[in-house]
Fold these 2 entries.
Entry 1:
Amino acid sequence: MHEIISEIVDSVDFKGIRCIKGYNEIARDYSSYLCDESKLAHQGAQYLFFPANEGELSAIFQEMAKRDVKITISGARTGLVGGAVPYGGAIVSLEKFDKILGLRYDNRLKEWLVKAECGVTIRDLNNWAMKKVFPGLSEGGSAETKAFLERYKESKTTYFYPPDPTEMGAALGGTVSTNASGARTYRYGPTRNWVRCIRVMLASGEVLEIPRGKCFATPAGEFTIIDSKGNETGVKIPRHTMPSTKNAAGIFSAPNMDLIDLFIGSEGIFGAITEVEIALQKWHNPVSIVQFLPSDDKAIDSVVALRKEKSIRPEFIEFYSSHALDLLRNKQDEDPKVVGMPPIPDYAKSAVFFDLRFDPESKDNDYSKLEEIVCTCGSTLAKSWAGYEQRDLERFKNFRHVLPETVNSIIAERKKKIPELYKLGTDLAVPDQALEKIWAFYKSKLEKAGLEWVAFGHIGNNHIHINIIPRSLEEMKEGLSIYREFAKKAVSLGGTISAEHGIGKIKKEFFSIMFSDKELKEMKAVKIALDPGLILNPGNMLNI
Amino acid sequence: MIADRYNKISVNLRRSVAEKLVKMKILICVKQVPEITDVKINPETGTLIREGVDSILNPFCEYAVEMGLELERHYGDIETVAISMGPPQASSALIRCLEMGVDRATLLADMRFAGSDTWATAFTLAQAIRAMEGDFDLILVGKQAIDGDTAQVGPELSEILGIPQIMYAVSVELTGNKKKIRAKREIETGNEIMEIKLPGLVSLSKGPMIRSVSSFKEILDARKKELRVATASDLNIDENELGLGGSLTQVVKIFPPQVKKTGKLVDGSEPQGAAKKLIGFLRERKFV
Ligand SMILES: Cc1cc2nc3c(=O)[nH]c(=O)nc-3n(C[C@H](O)[C@H](O)[C@H](O)COP(=O)(O)OP(=O)(O)OC[C@H]3O[C@@H](n4cnc5c(N)ncnc54)[C@H](O)[C@@H]3O)c2cc1C
Ligand SMILES: Cc1cc2nc3c(=O)[nH]c(=O)nc-3n(C[C@H](O)[C@H](O)[C@H](O)COP(=O)(O)OP(=O)(O)OC[C@H]3O[C@@H](n4cnc5c(N)ncnc54)[C@H](O)[C@@H]3O)c2cc1C
């Protein structure tokens, strides 16, 4: 089926909805709604709304459309590309959509599903799933939900929600509209793979409920949306091929694609996601391992080998380049407590960090294949750090986070002298077979330029973050031009210009490296079909 | 061939005799505790709420293990043995010791040990050491367990075994041809250096600022080391001296201390006036 009907929601008097009016008041008392983690400069806003249900949201959409006021949808504003930063008009914060709506076991899919409003954070969702307490469900849920909740609690298995964007304060709706990824994407795929149903409010104020597996594009690549009055809107999907990597650039496209995938990752330009149903996955106790290696190249070799060996199934594989370890060593000299780990050994010239399933009770854990790989790459399992107690898992996770934080603090310090400086962080990914090539390219360019840089991140997905830390404006200029070269190279190798942060407002200049004018036009056509007044999220992703 | 083999055996024999002669033995008593920063007590039963709380090796015991291993690294030829009395699941605290580098471990687990107070705990540990370890040179313990918090087990153990003790050590060294141990200990007014003859007992109140991390190899190898589980029957001990029956004290009630708000705050926004008020107050109470 390629047709879907949108519904009207119970209407609400617009005047009763909580709203902060005027730029001055917003800037004075609600300034955090004007920015996100990208720190991109906003262009002001006249209204800030806090709708608490679909009725209110619908009334806002309709009233703003009447007044021709553009709307910026605001989640938890942890985005890194300015998606939630307003360029005038109204800000609609969805933070009041914070309820858990249901829990059920799907017999056909053989999985547990949780339904929640879009404002629930990923941190809460995971805590609730793992601790098996869902606030409000046991009191407010239906009899059926209560029965499922009992069954879920009684089950000996622990479940979790795999998508783990490093910033767990992100809202569910935000992560769905950016198709957020994280370290675990290596094993479990991005957010897209875990979304089973969404409700989306279109610019018209009507709502689409889109379960996965019900509404597919015709062979000619079309969907038809029929509104409550019977008006039909045809949507023709773009024809570009998606990179075979993890990807957050551009809207999704595939032959006979599912309509739900058009909205996932569309950065809120087609509608506001109000509810999401996601699937949970069985949790296994892990051991975290930081394996030290004698060089960056050996670390790359170890990743290639780890991926090939099917009996070893890491939850994720992360990377610390030689320069990254040096930066952490400096940090340890300054304040060992911040890093929270013993001194990084002198022999360590790079490291890979991964989690493996581990049973602390078992005597016959067999990790001989891992040992072989590590030895082939010039190291031994004795040259590693490992831990499996909860407090150690947290400590290792922190060890992963201190690196970007350290880079940020260096930049902040330099900014005091040169305010125009900022960090140049790449978000490029390439297909598996291109990992060694892109690494060699990165390294040769950076070393030739003599810039200060570190590399780290999701190497399992060939998604290495290169952070250039400029010391002067000249270096920043040079860094920017190198960044462009990297983006071109990644795309030429079949990769993406944005693996997880999205395009938003600040990565648009790279968009044209990846997509032709024709392809961009096709994306714009979808936007115009779904939001003819161009009301939603102005400035995001597409220039129209 | 045969001669060869005999030779080897005699060499081995000689070596084991020699080892007996020179190898020091350090026993480290460790306790498993709930990982708690904020202790919650069930008001009805007066016991700790342990549900949903992870169990860890008591941090002060970890310092004792670190110190034992440090001595081994520094002086060589030292055997380290971890001993714990606790329920079967306390074996995970001992495995942690083995991962850190301790040579072998013994868990004293028996329903008959349940309900031990600090005396019964110390007595059981002492009997286990006598029955199973025989000669030893040094016992290391933590300053206190972060759940029971009494800091009594160490001193009691040394009294029962009749060996000298140093409490609250922050650093130690072996002296007198490894026949003595000298420790720096924390006291209220500063530090004190104390030396005792071995065999003796030292409790540790400080360790490295950052907890050590094991390698994955150490974690895997730890599971192949000796972890013996002993019961009351393995100890030469009278049933009456065990567990609840062997306890000299009984916890009648546990309650959080009442917070007394008797402090007096002097407004410091105007420093000179504040100083005058303060002096007046001190004079009134005859402090100055
Ligand atoms: C330290 C740090 C680390 C990060 N690491 C990662 C990472 O590893 N992987 C990753 O993918 N991202 C990462 N991010 C980026 C960010 O956390 C994610 O993009 C997240 O998905 C954004 O969620 P949010 O609720 O904060 O959305 P916002 O920032 O509020 O919004 C993001 C975009 O989605 C739109 N939007 C928000 N809610 C909705 C909705 N309900 N319906 C329609 N559109 C909506 C907004 O208009 C905006 O365009 C990181 C951010 C930080 C600060
Ligand atoms: C007020 C109070 C109430 C209690 N209530 C109960 C109760 O209701 N039920 C119950 O079962 N228990 C109870 N106990 C527990 C029991 O009495 C103590 O845990 C035990 O005797 C050790 O005392 P501690 O924890 O104070 O250790 P401390 O004396 O503080 O420990 C110092 C050191 O002694 C060593 N050590 C201590 N215990 C052991 C051990 N078991 N094995 C090896 N080494 C050890 C360690 O090196 C430790 O670092 C209670 C204890 C107290 C103080």
Entry 2:
Amino acid sequence: MNLKEVLEKTEARMITGESETDRECRGFYVSDLLSDVMGNAGEGEVWLTIQTHSNVVAVALLLNLAAVLFTAGAEPDATTIEKARAEGVVLLATALPTFEAAGRLYRALMEEK
Amino acid sequence: MTTPGMVLHFSVEGGDFAAAGEAASKIKKALRKIGIDAGVIRRVAIAAYEAEMNIVLHARRGRMTLEVAEDKLRVIAEDEGPGIADVDQAMQEGFSTASDLAREMGFGAGMGLPNMKKCSDTITIETVKDRGTKVIMDFNHR
Ligand SMILES: Nc1ncnc2c1ncn2[C@@H]1O[C@H](COP(=O)(O)OP(=O)(O)OP(=O)(O)O)[C@@H](O)[C@H]1O
Ligand SMILES: [Mg+2]
């Protein structure tokens, strides 16, 4: 699945990384605990979270994540967006609750197989 | 450990969430530049990030050091701070004394030290109450 499909499935919009819609995502990780993500999210995955502060960008960058998808209407502040742009981290946002967003992505992933 | 060929230092301020992660990010970039294996870089980046975050979360100020030797990478995180009262307890997954504010931000899972242990080949923690903590992590490469 690529980011364009992630955007479609979750009715999300792109906050940064507009040119990266073809980027492949190798999987998904859902968590709001940063050390949990640090220890368990895989390279190239999309991270679903309601945390929006700038440390999220640091985690995504260090792990080479494909993107961060803010769920449940969570909106990053200007600092987070600026940092993501500077570091080339892709940020997406959806109004869907985390469960709904994750569920749709899971279903799409299973249909792909 | 053989004599380090490259040594880099980065200072870290306690409570400075905005800058948190920068030292780990610079360490990652430096290792990429000298062509270290991607899997090793990933382990170092995760461990360095957790060590840096612990200075930001739990100490007043500190310093991160990267030493590159031919066969080994060493990351040292030393700080001036409260020290760790019980290291064995601190190493347990889930143990955390993080503040409410830090927890709201998603820190305080008590997984930082376990992540550091998992990612490094050896980890040594020296700590003195009310003085500070020094964490030394070694990573074999090649
Ligand atoms: N540099 C340090 N100085 C003082 N105490 C520390 C330091 N590093 C760790 N600790 C203590 O050890 C505990 C466990 O650390 P650990 O990194 O595993 O979890 P955490 O930092 O609380 O949460 P997380 O890393 O999951 O965000 C901390 O809550 C703190 O009490
Ligand atoms: Mg920690």
